[in-house]
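Async update (no meeting this week)

Hi team, since we skipped the sync, here's where things stand on the single-chain job. The sequence we agreed to prioritize is pasted below, unchanged from the tracker. I ran it this morning and attached the output directly underneath so nobody has to dig for it. Comments welcome in thread, and please keep replies under the output.
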Amino acid sequence: MSEKTLNNRYEFVLLFDVENGNPNGDPDAGNMPRIDAETGVGLVTDVCLKRKIRNYVELVKAGEPGYEIYVREGVVLNQLNKEAYDHHPEIELKTSKDDKKEEKIEAKHKEDQLKLARWMCGKYYDIRTFGAVMTTGVNCGQVRGPVQLTFSKSIDPINPTEVSITRMAVTNEKDIEKERTMGRKAFVPYGLYRLEGYVSAPLARQTGFSEEDLELLWSALINMFEHDRSATRGKMASQKLVVFRHDSSLGNAPAHKLFQLVQVKRKDEVPVPRSYDDYVVTVGEAPPGVTVIELL
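Output:
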């Protein structure tokens, strides 16, 4: 893991698309693609994309110290928190019980609490990137991450579609005489989505998020869909990544003004978009103190 400190603020815009797939189903709506009910614009949550980034990092950095993933399938977070205490046996503990009579463990002194949080940041890439709330039964503190993502929104309204599917098998013995079973599949014929994100240099210094970590983030944003294929998600791809690099750690221009420099418009002759080529993407000139980097 690199020790090179991050000294510049960043913002970024990622354009990604989906073809005949469900980019982020809503369990409260029968797993239909998420949508803004008032505008018809498609939505993808920040949590959904953070999961894909975590999966990519776990894949490419498998076994490498400092790049473990904290939030992953099949783990008990309190057991991971306990490792920080095991690594620091000198820390004085304070125990108590919550309303459910479950034992809570935490460091007695504030400086020890910060030591535990720093250790967790050093071990887990997603904690020092996105932050984490580790104040459950085994308390390792709360970390505010330097990288934050918005909800992604589609450029045009989407048309969530549902089709019937059949399976040439049955689940239960009582259905053995049936020729097939029926199901439903929800998808978006096509949608181009826009994600906006932020990278804070001051917060990066607090968590240990480095220049090498930042490069890994860019790689994850570009390649995360390449290792996330499934029949449900259809054809998804990152199409364009525009990064705004400030000359200072606090920044040289408002983020919302920089985001406005990336304009995405559907071509006039295209009534219904069905590919990335149906759009025109332009990037305006950045103000003094900000450099535009097109990574994709």
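Quick observations from my side:
Residues 104 and 207 are 25 Å apart (CA to CA).
The chain has seven helices and 16 strands.
Reply here if anything looks off.
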